[in-house]
Design brief:
The protein has about 425 residues and is an alpha/beta fold. The chain folds into 3 domains: about 5-125, Sandwich (Immunoglobulin-like), CATH 2.60.40; about 130-345, 3-Layer(aba) Sandwich (Rossmann fold), CATH 3.40.50; about 345-405, no CATH class. The chain is built from 14 helices and 18 strands. The protein has helices spanning about 10-20, 75-80, 95, 130-150, 190-195, 210-225, 285-295, 325-330, 350-360, 365-370, 375-380, 385, 390-395, 400-405; strands at about 25-30, 35, 40-50, 55-60, 65, 65-70, 85-90, 105-115, 115-125, 165, 170, 180, 185, 230, 245, 255, 270-275, 295-305. Strands 10-11-12-13-16-15-14-17-18 form a 9-stranded mixed β-sheet. A 5-stranded mixed β-sheet has the order 2-9-8-4-5. Strand 4 (about 55-60) and strand 5 form a beta hairpin. The protein binds zinc ion. Zinc ion binds next to loops.
């Protein structure tokens, strides 16, 4: 993943002594070429801040403070110890384009400690276009006006009681619940929901562009003057006035924060709903499916894509994969099936490639080498049972076993009733 080969010659002791003189380091490993193409690109790396008296440490790009999540970086920690913070940061290129300081494409990613720039790395931003940024701001404003008319309280079943928008608060007149509205997103994700639905911080996020089917669904809704809900949108590289993006994290394209289990929308308001590789990440896909159906207009279209043979992947957790019958079953009671297919992004070669590359990655070097040198027919010549004692089978990491398991098992006990 990371290329920090330059650190290898520095011994651990020398590295720690080095920090006495140079207590701040900033390393970027993605984008590897130093070019940020759009808001769907994340910046990944790590920094060291070895002074204990710093008040606040932030990452800034062209004067804009970036949202980032901490990421485990054992590679850098091995050398520089616990003062390492790994990060994955989101860049809102529109926000930067509208910042007066942001002239020219060459920017420095800056590590700012207690208000002082202590380290920096040059980056090139391609998508800085003031006209696009202003148009995006306008589209977001128009969507927010539409949303004010179509949002509903997710805490109670009062889907017809209008919400009250007052300053930076949103109030439900039916159950007195209140939510946040701080100007960019409507926040229907209180701590209570985060706990109830096990929403952890994002650690990896998807940023895929729409396939042809999704594009057609959006264009159809656009031509009707309707709206599409992209439920669990992840990062999208641009703002589309027709598409309302709901997520659990405030990415630059996101309009509403909320959970799929309790969508903060009135009944039957969307011409179409997209649920693209999201339902494997929710604790209860059946209740989420009912919510997707509830907010869809009669005659509206749902495009749902859900993994079948994919390894366990987080973002922030992964619960249920579905077979083709499972996918149909989720919606069979309420929706008419128009088309049932394997999308290009779901071709079996993805499974094969994903499993083999992941398997290799989770082996120690010697076993990885022998595994990579095997031919497909070497693997297929024996039964799996006969290969259980092979080093490249036995030495797969625990994490690899869980992520790629053919099945997992558990033993439970029913808790005795308290007397
Ligand atoms: Zn309510």
């Amino acid at each position: 993943m990371a290329n920090i080969a330059w650190l290898a010659p520095i011994g651990r002791l020398a590295a720690r002594a080095f920090l006495q003189f140079q207590p701040y380091l900033l390393h970027v490993d993605q984008p590897a070429n130093g070019v940020v193409e759009n808001s769907a690109d994340t910046i990944q790396g790590w920094f060291v801040a070895a002074r204990s008296n710093d008040q606040e440490i932030v990452l800034q790009l062209a004067g804009v403070t970036l949202t980032f999540v901490p990421v485990e970086r054992p590679d850098a920690k091995r050398i520089f110890g616990k003062s390492v913070t790994g990060f994955r940061a989101v860049v809102d290129t529109n926000e930067i384009a509208l910042t007066p300081a942001a002239h020219g494409k060459d920017k420095n990613l800056q590590l700012v400690a207690s208000g002082r720039v202590v380290a920096s790395k040059p980056l090139r931003l391609l998508a800085l276009d003031t006209a696009v940024a202003e148009a995006s701001l306008h589209k977001r404003g128009a969507k927010r006006e539409w949303l004010k008319q179509h949002l509903a309280c997710p805490s109670c079943d009062a889907q017809t009681t209008p919400l009250v928008f007052e300053g930076d608060k949103i109030y439900c007149q039916a159950c007195q619940a209140s939510f946040e509205n701080h100007g960019k997103v409507f926040n229907f994700l209180p701590e209570k929901f985060k706990r109830e639905f096990q929403i952890a911080g994002w650690d990896n996020i998807s940023a895929h562009s729409y396939d042809e089917v999704a594009k057609a669904v959006v264009e159809q809704a656009r031509s009707n003057g309707g709206k599409v809900l992209d439920c669990g949108s992840g990062l999208r590289p641009y703002v589309d006035e027709t598409v309302i993006c709901l997520e659990v994290e405030e990415f630059p394209n996101v309009d509403v924060l909320g959970v799929n289990q309790k969508l903060p929308f009135q009944n039957e308001v969307f011409d179409a709903v997209l649920s693209l590789n999201v339902l494997e990440h929710v604790t209860d896909p059946f209740s989420c499916a009912r919510e997707l159906v509830r907010v869809l207009k009669p005659g509206g279209t749902l495009y749902c894509c859900i993994p079948f043979l994919q390894p366990e992947h987080g973002y922030p957790d992964h619960y249920f994969n579905a077979t083709r019958s499972g996918l149909k079953q989720l919606f069979s009671r309420d929706l008419e099936l128009l088309r049932h297919f394997v999308p290009a992004s779901g071709e079996p070669i993805w499974s094969l490639h994903w499993f083999l590359s992941w398997y290799a990655r989770e082996l120690p070097l010697a076993e990885k080498t022998s595994f990579l040198n095997m031919r497909v027919q070497d693997i297929l010549a024996n039964s799996a049972q006969a290969m259980l004692q092979e080093p490249w089978v036995r030495r797969l990491s625990d994490d690899g076993k869980w992520s790629l398991a053919a099945s997992t098992a558990a033993l439970f006990r029913k808790v005795a009733e308290e007397q």
